Automatic annotation (TrEMBL):
Residues 355-436 form the ACT domain. L-homoserine binds at residue 192. This is Homoserine dehydrogenase. PANTHER family: HOMOSERINE DEHYDROGENASE (PTHR43331). It comes from Rhizobium skierniewicense.
Length: 436
């Protein structure tokens, strides 16, 4: 059997601890599968004294990830620290500079520095694997990077944040508040260290930016993503969506249009009978539409220790099975230097259906005025209803509109015109509808 693959793991949180356990428990089986043993020879984590329930005997401890990346005699540096900059970035750069392979789950790092790191890895002949960075255990990176080669992708979209999907599902099924559901997601280890990254959509945006590059061959451009989180979604929206035959999901969508690539992350209405609407809880789903293959939908666990560790393990095993001197898969699916410039499609040119919920004063002419504002902006309505679920005589009324496909620009103008009238009681809620 070949020499063992020596790995160093930086970060012993939920994912790192799961990974150590799996590698130790399945060491014999993995050695047979990979043709050589995978040996953890170094670790680094913030607190050395913390009891993680792990057996770290015989493993060299490094106080910082960077120190480990610079000094440890390892073949693979596993980065499970997180964060776009700081310790994780320094350590990954140090490892690649030594030509050491890197496996990372760090979507924020890749969204910000992915192209540069890919260039570095390719120049050094090192692998940079990151299956765990997008949609947890779902092997979407491998699918895009390898299996769909030659396909022209037109749209990629999905549920890529387990915390948000868990919250939206729990709110709908159990009628619990947003805050209570978020607390539970944190307790279960799904949420980021700062859960604002989850609920405000940044985490999904980082993942989407990576997928966009793999799907369309353009440079990573996370700053060009239109972003809306789920923190202002109410039980009332969820119920109204359901009454109209929809469910609300936080989707990341990247789409090729005539004017460029549209990348957006926002709460989205999907038809109740669509497969993606059935994706509940922490589960993620990614759909790819491409010309040769057609439609692909991958569904699976999107967050949590074991699911994420499974993807990290797959990446490590790929390195263990690879042989020096053999041409490797480019980090971002094609040589990093050949990625095209990113061309952004303006959000106001987005075309689709819209759900609009208005809370208005109960007085004559409001309905007619809303319909007029829509007509003035050439917006065709699929339905307009006074929503009786929350009706109180003389009190504020809820009016729900669903539009046919229209331009975002027209919706913004119509909503602005409606806001300038004095009958709105609070901010209008606008949720995009996605064809799935
Ligand atoms: N916080 C992330 C989520 C973890 O909820 O999906 C996986 O990236």
């Amino acid at each position: 059997m070949a020499d063992s693959l020596r790995i160093g793991i930086a970060g012993l949180g939920t994912v790192g601890s799961s990974l150590v356990r799996i590698l130790q428990q399945r060491s014999k089986e993995l050695a047979i599968t990979c043709g050589r043993a995978i040996e953890i020879i170094a670790v680094s984590a913030r607190d050395r004294s913390r009891d993680r329930g792990l057996d770290l005997a015989g493993i060299t401890w490094f106080d910082t990830p960077e120190d480990m990346a610079k000094k440890a005699e390892i073949d693979v540096f596993v980065e499970l620290v997180g964060g776009a900059s700081g310790a994780a970035e320094k350590a990954v750069r140090a490892a690649l500079a030594r030509g050491i392979h890197v496996v990372t789950a760090n979507k924020a790092l890749l969204a910000k520095h992915g192209v540069e790191l890919a260039v570095m890895a390719e120049e050094k002949g090192a692998l940079l694997n990151f299956e765990a960075a997008v949609a947890g255990g779902i092997p979407i990176i491998k699918a895009l990077r390898e299996s769909l080669t030659g396909n022209h992708v037109s749209r990629i979209y999905g549920i890529m944040n387990g915390t948000c999907n868990y919250i939206l599902t729990k709110m709908e099924k159990e009628g619990l508040s947003f805050e209570a559901c978020l607390k539970e997601a944190q307790r279960l280890g799904y949420a980021e260290a700062d859960p604002a990254f989850d609920i405000e959509g940044n985490d999904t945006a980082h993942k989407l930016a990576i997928l966009t590059t793999l799907a369309f061959g353009s440079k990573i451009s996370a700053d060009d993503i239109y972003l809306e989180g789920i923190s202002n979604i109410t039980i009332e929206d969820i119920q109204a969506a359901s009454d109209l035959g929809y469910r609300i999901k936080l989707l990341g969508v990247a789409h090729v249009t005539e004017s460029g690539i549209e990348q957006r992350v926002h709460p989205t209405m999907v038809p109740l009978d669509s497969v993606i609407a059935q994706v509940d809880g922490v589960t993620n789903a990614v759909a790819v539409e491409s010309d040769i293959l057609g439609e692909l939908l991958m569904v699976g666990p999107g967050a949590g220790g074991n699911a994420t560790a499974s993807a990290v393990l797959g990446d490590i095993a790929d390195i263990a099975k690879s042989r020096p001197g053999v041409q490797q898969v480019p980090v971002l699916g094609r040589p990093a230097k050949s990625l095209s410039e990113y061309r952004r499609a303006k959000m106001k040119s987005h075309e689709g259906g819209y759900f609009i919920r208005l809370t208005v004063k109960d007085k004559a002419g409001v309905f007619a005025s809303i319909a007029t504002r829509m007509a003035e902006n050439n917006i065709s309505l699929e339905s307009i209803v006074q929503h009786s679920r929350v009706h109180t005589e003389g009190g504020p009324q809820t009016i729900i509109l669903v539009t046919h496909a229209t331009m975002e620009d027209a919706i913004r103008k119509a909503v602005k015109a409606i806001k300038s009238e004095k009958y709105l009681v609070n901010e209008p809620q606008v949720i995009r509808i996605e064809r799935t």
